[in-house]
Design brief:
about 475 residues, 14 helices, 14 strands, seven-stranded mixed β-sheet, disordered N terminus, alpha/beta, Aspartate Aminotransferase, domain 1
Amino acid sequence: MDEPNNPSFSSIICSILEFYIFKNIISRYLYNPPMSSNTTPDWLADDAKHIWHPYSAINSGLPVFAVESAHGVRLKLSDGRELIDGMSSWWCAIHGYNHPILNKAITDQLKSVAHVMFGGLSHQPAVDLANKLIEITPEALQSIFFSDSGSVSVEVAMKMAIQYWHTKNQPKKQKFLTIRGGYHGDTFGAMSVCDPVTGMHQLFSESLNQQFFVDAPSRPFGEACTENDMHAMMQALTEHHPEVAAVILEPVVQGAGGMHFYSADYLNRLRVLCDEYGVLLIFDEIATGFGRTGRLFALEHTEVVPDILCLGKSLTGGYMTLAATLTTTHVSQTISQGKPGLFMHGPTFMANPLACSVALASIELLLNSPWQQNVIRIEQQLKQELKACEPLSCVENVRVLGAIGVVELKQPVDMKTLPQQFVDEGVWVRPFGKLVYLMPPYIIQPDELSLLTKAIYNVISKIKH
């Protein structure tokens, strides 16, 4: 005889579970539908109405994309799309985003003190960070001044140089000498030593202190300089050294002034000239410090130790704004022992404990990682994959050094269209001027980097020259 057609207890339970699962899915969809690709958060309208972005106008019409979160090398937009980040958030997020070690450094420090004035007070994170920077930079650099941005660290360096010579009874040494194609920041002193044309500050030329400029070295990275290469610099020093406090430049790699890679030998010869003519030498390693060129600092491609060194950007791994200006004991003692007996600068947020803590954690994280192998791997892949751009009619030049890949175009990019095209390709690439470039986090994987290089090819191949 057949058994009664009665459902078992287990089948009843399964049916109930299936019903509630289905109900939950439907409910979530109805009340929280997936965001479409054109979903825009309400607050972005207020952004356009009220907020200036870097080098933009209020309500400029340039695309601005809303970031909801970031993890690893990916930025998640509010519409749900994920972008592979090729910029390291302007070159500073070398470990990627949301790193547990750096998160912990911030939260641990937050439990004790988030900020305290540095005038008359001190704290261990600042001292520990200072000791670490002294350990990893050239031995001669023993004195550190902390500030809160890269451009301010340049201001500090310039003030150090002027005050040094004032103390040495040479108050006429107030000027600076540099090479064209450089970029050192957007504050007034820093603007004055940026390239007068490519440095983006032509509007302020009548307000800025007038400095001395010579042509940048023509020899590319990896080649030796000749006496002829040094002629312009030697001539400028011969003529102007009584007025020049220091030569300031970005070693080996020029950043936002044009992304040029030049002969390291130029710096070896420049050090000799500075010593001969009694001029200090300042290296701005805000963009190149902490491994970007394949060495921990770009100065390590040379035999040179500058009198003053500026660091920033990657110092905190992109978590907090912090910068440092390092100098020799000779310079710091000369300033400290002369009139007025102190260095005349002091930012409110100088040596912020949160920033110092995460900076120390970032440096330790870098040094304990295979960063050199990663940068070499990135360099090799960039050279191989960006080579495809060379034959394009719109391309002037392709160049790679360390974890920096540059495609220079013949004409300036259209900033109203190119960023959107890159987002449509699933990547974040922010061109400027004639340059489409990559400075990815060091943790980027080969398949992720390939998405970036393919996106660059796909986008610029559509440009008509």
